[in-house]
Amino acid sequence: MTEPLKDITSHDTFVDGVPHETFAYLRANDPVHWTEESDGGRGFWSLTKHEDVVFASRHSEIFSSRQGIRLEDMDEEETEARRTLMEMDAPEHTRLRRLVSRPFAPKSIATYEDAVREIAVDLLDSLKGKDEFDFVSSVSRGLPMRMLGRLLGLPNEDLEWLVLRGDALIGNTDPDFTEYVVDQVDTSAYRLLPFRSPVSLELFEYASQALEERRITPTHDVLSSLLETTVEGDTLDELALQNFFTLMVAAGNDTTRYSMTAGLQALIERPDLFAQLPSMTLEQRKGLVEEMLRWSSVTMHFRRTATQDVEIGAKTIKAGDKVVMWFTSANFDEDHFDSPYEFRADRAHNDHVAFGLFSPHLCLGAHLARLEMRVLFEEIAARWSSVESAGPSERLRSNFIGGTKQLPIRVTWR
Ligand code: HEM
């Protein structure tokens, strides 16, 4: 068999879609695969099997996040300056995660359902009378943004500005989203800023002002709750607060947007399933969302760094080596999922790794994202009797986040 390997280090590779044949080849022939980097990087291991990705996720003492969670190599000064919750290990990570997790716990999230539904209904009803539109700009971009605005207690008129900044950070490899494209222009002046982008300074400033207002007049939103001292007497300092705010704007927006978009794309391919939506039970709708998450695997990878020599799949990973957990490959592992390339809403035991799995870093926003996706598709089912593609879609230029930037659709209203 010839090696159909595409360059997984190149952001351009992913513009045409996830190179599934490459990952399938690696899973079958070289599941723990070494890649040299041509841009001066020191090379990395790819974990492509579900089992190995879960092993690395679970063993954060062997696979550290402290030296970065993206492929790029950063020196110590850079790593330190750009550190957020994601680039921490225990016990520092455990402490900060405890401080920020309450508003994202299942109990809290359950109380947001009415707000999510109100936003979904408003977005969909504002389209009434239109049969053709771009699903991303009209629907999936607006819902996560407006919900995050509610959670953080931010005025509606600031949300567009915030989302553009979030896109510029997470989409820092796509010229449509930022002029500071990390692998195309010299961004060395911003090497000490999150996402190597001056845009994070704007978000820091915005966060400081919003926090100051809440110090003077406390409100009942997530930002105010972050200012409270815990029962253990713990508080967050200003930089930690700014970093967390920036992380939420970056991590909480486009991931959910792209997962919803990919979910609709899957249903466009499966009109039979779309027709079943209105009669699905709550459990079935939740199962559908899990399959959308597996299918889309929007966060395609996270990186770790080995803290010690470790054997995986007959390969010896050396202390200090970069190790990439390819979630998008693990979610299509044929040894773990039956017919992985089939979209099956009724998949039993769908233990996908779209949010990570058994990891201390398991996505903080997982319950919120699930709720937003379920409610959106419930409201879509109540309004549209059919949906089809109305033109070509376009994907993000990134090997980190896999998403469709625009999805022209044609719908039939009930
Ligand atoms: C479908 C949408 C989403 C996907 C696919 C996704 C995916 C992920 C993944 C894969 C991780 C890393 C897990 C690991 O390292 O094991 C992560 C972490 C994180 N996510 Fe999400 N995410 C989504 C939505 C959200 C939302 C809505 C928020 C917040 C409002 C959010 C906030 C975070 C934060 C703060 C972390 C870092 C957690 C930590 O390091 O402890 N995410 N997410």
Walk me through this protein's architecture:
The protein is α+β, with helices and mostly antiparallel strands. The chain has a single domain (12-413), classed as Orthogonal Bundle (Cytochrome p450). Helices cover 44% and strands 11% of the residues. It has helices at 20-29, 50-58, 76-81, 92-100, 106-110, 113-125, 135-140, 142-152, 156-170, 199-216, 222-227, 238-251, 254-269, 271-276, 282-296, 327-330, 366-383, and strands spanning 32-35, 44-47, 63-64, 132-134, 301-306, 310-312, 315-317, 322-326, 384-389, 394-395, 404-406, 408-413. The model has no long low-confidence stretch (mean pLDDT 93).
Tell me about the biggest sheet? Answer: 5 strands, mixed
Second CATH tier, the architecture: Orthogonal Bundle
Proportion of residues in extended strands: 5-15%
Order of helices and strands: HEEHEHHHHEHHHHHHHHHEEEEHHEEEE
